[in-house]
Amino acid sequence: MKQKTLFIAAAIALLGLFIGGTLMFKQQQQSEVAQQVQVNQQALMRMHSPLIGAPHAKVTIVEFLDPACEACAAFYPFVKDIMAKNPEQIRLVVRYAPLHQGADQVVAALEAARKQGKYWQALETLLSTQQQWAINHRADVNLALPILSGLGLDMAQLQTDMQSSSVQAIIEQDISDAQALGVNKTPSYFVNGQPLQSFGYQQLAELINSALATPEQAMTK
Amino acid sequence: MPQPPNPDTNKTCTHDWCLIFIAWLIAACGTLGALFFGEVMGIAPCTLCWYQRIFMFPLAIFLPLALFPLDTKVIRYALPLAMLGLGFAIYHWLLQLGIIPATTSPCSQGSSCSEVSAQWFGFLTIPLMSVFAFALINIALLATLIREK
Question: Which spans are transmembrane here (chain B) (predicted)?
Answer without folding.
Answer: 17-38, 50-70, 77-100, 120-146
